[in-house]
């Protein structure tokens, strides 16, 4: 994969998301992981774009105020939610919630919002992107098998687009990387505008 963040070679990822780290590493970046430990419940918004942007910004502020922060390195934080029928779906707390989320997404189109906060050249950029994902009808037995795999744990909407559930996706409109958890295209545009 091409390094869309050129000239950046090393980046701090303020996230514990393995999918985000893999995206950045696949671009050839040296990734330093420093997850933030914030209380996400302090951000209360029913507007998905506002929620993900605020959470990403809060994570970045936590990093910028930490002992790990260094002004020389670019840093990136992100947050993702799924939205269907004006209902925001975050990470399921248990199997029952995950089953409900997947049943809701089955045979429907939903939106995936990913907000990000980028620290680059001593400036902070906050933004978000949204993509539409359409699932085919998914049999309840398949959902139960997927739940037992525990792949849903830690994923907004209880699925990972780059995991075993991807075979049930009928269509994605927008940036696939936004669904994975990092709007590479939007972030790349910001970096290019600063060069």
What's this entry about, in short?
By secondary structure, the chain is of the alpha/beta class. It has a single domain (10-194), classed as Maf protein (Alpha-Beta Complex).
Outline the structure in words:
- The two termini are 21 Å apart.
- Strand 3 (74-84) and strand 4 form a beta hairpin.
- The chain is globular and about 50 Å long.
- The longest helix has 17 residues, at 48-64.
- 32% of the residues lie in helices and 27% in strands.
- Helix 3 (95-105) crosses helix 4 (140-149).
- The chain is an alpha/beta fold and 195 residues long.
- The model has no long low-confidence stretch (mean pLDDT 94).
Task: Determine the structural class based on helices, strands and strand pairing.
Answer: alpha/beta
Number of helices: 6
How many domains make up the coordinates? Answer: 1
Which descriptor suits the 3D outline?
A: globular
What share of residues is helical?
25-40%
| CATH fold-type name | Maf protein
Descriptive tags:
seven-stranded mixed sheet, 32% helix, Maf protein, alpha/beta, 195 residues, 27% strand
List the helices and strands and how they pair.
Elements (H helix, E strand, L loop, with lengths): L9 E5 L3 H9 L3 E4 L14 H17 L9 E11 L2 E3 L5 H11 L3 E12 L2 E13 L4 H10 L19 E5 L2 H5 L3 H11 L1
Parallel strand pairs: 1-2, 1-3
Antiparallel strand pairs: 3-4, 3-5, 5-6, 6-7
Helix pairs in contact: 3-4
